[in-house]
């Protein structure tokens, strides 16, 4: 099973776009690939049940026939930090339903792309951090770096936090989120030099681009099965 956990240097820096592009890249290699968004806050009612835009995008990019409830076990209405959104919904985010859904997805796919929430240190509940989930799933981490002023600091701090939590940073993906960023290529070069993992690609600034078209910008290392 080729699987990894996608986190980011912050919220709103292209984690879902990168995750969907990874799914299309994996499928281009002939793998049955499925996405997972274990916890998603900010949902709307569709046919009487809560649905999240990011989780729906992962569902569309992955293998067909995957049950939404397995892709997104915790769909929370309010667009807040998961801990607050779950509190408002009167529920608690726990590991067991996520692990059960992951097991069902694993039986239907050769590769899984699990997308986290916000940045690495964003908690899932009062007692559950993303690091706890990644340890339980035994996954390597892919860091999406939002390319804007401050990205060096955010990326290096995120990499240190992942290592301090005892987890493996398998690679990173640059995501152009600020088309006016100065010296962007120099920043990418410094990230390549300083981050302790290979760059899997850089996604251009393309707000309306389909993730399938952006998949060509990514290259999953052969050591990961890509």
From TrEMBL:
Q: Name one Pfam family in it.
A: AAA_26
Cofactor(s) needed, names only, are: Mg(2+)
| Localization of this protein | Cytoplasm
Q: Which GO terms describe its cellular component?
A: cytosol
Gene Ontology MF terms: ATP binding; dethiobiotin synthase activity; magnesium ion binding; protein homodimerization activity
What residues make up the catalytic site? 37
Instruction: Report any one BP term from Gene Ontology.
Output: biotin biosynthetic process
**Keyword Membrane on this protein?**
no
Q: Which domain of life is it from?
A: Bacteria
Query: Which keywords does this Swiss-Prot/TrEMBL entry list?
Result: ATP-binding, Biotin biosynthesis, Cytoplasm, Ligase, Magnesium, Metal-binding, Nucleotide-binding
Q: Where does substrate bind?
A: 41
Extract the PANTHER family matched here. Answer: DETHIOBIOTIN SYNTHETASE (PTHR43210:SF5)
Role = Catalyzes a mechanistically unusual reaction, the ATP-dependent insertion of CO2 between the N7 and N8 nitrogen atoms of 7,8-diaminopelargonic acid (DAPA, also called 7,8-diammoniononanoate) to form a ureido ring.
The record's note on quaternary structure and interaction partners says: Homodimer.
Q: What is this protein called?
A: ATP-dependent dethiobiotin synthetase BioD
**Gene (UniProt):** bioD
């Amino acid at each position: 099973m080729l699987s990894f956990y996608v986190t980011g240097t912050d919220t709103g820096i292209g984690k879902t776009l990168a995750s969907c592009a990874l799914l299309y890249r994996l499928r281009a290699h002939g793998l049955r690939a499925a996405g997972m968004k274990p916890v998603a806050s900010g949902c709307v009612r569709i046919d009487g049940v809560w649905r999240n835009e990011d989780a729906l995008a992962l569902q569309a990019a992955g293998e067909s026939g995957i049950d939404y409830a397995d892709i997104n076990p915790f769909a929370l209405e309010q667009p807040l930090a998961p801990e607050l959104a779950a509190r408002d919904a009167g529920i608690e985010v726990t590991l067991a339903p996520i692990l059960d859904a992951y097991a069902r997805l694993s039986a239907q796919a050769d590769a899984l792309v699990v997308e986290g929430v916000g940045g690495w240190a964003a908690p899932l509940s009062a007692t559950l951090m993303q690091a706890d989930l990644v340890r339980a799933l035994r996954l390597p981490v892919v860091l999406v770096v939002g390319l804007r002023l401050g990205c060096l600091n955010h990326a290096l701090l995120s990499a240190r936090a992942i290592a301090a939590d005892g987890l493996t940073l398998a690679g990173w993906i640059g995501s152009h989120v600020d088309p006016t960023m100065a010296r962007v290529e120099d920043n990418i070069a410094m990230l390549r030099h300083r981050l302790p993992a290979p760059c899997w690609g850089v996604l251009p600034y393309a707000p309306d681009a389909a993730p399938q078209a952006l998949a060509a910008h990514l290259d999953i290392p052969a050591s990961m099965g890509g």
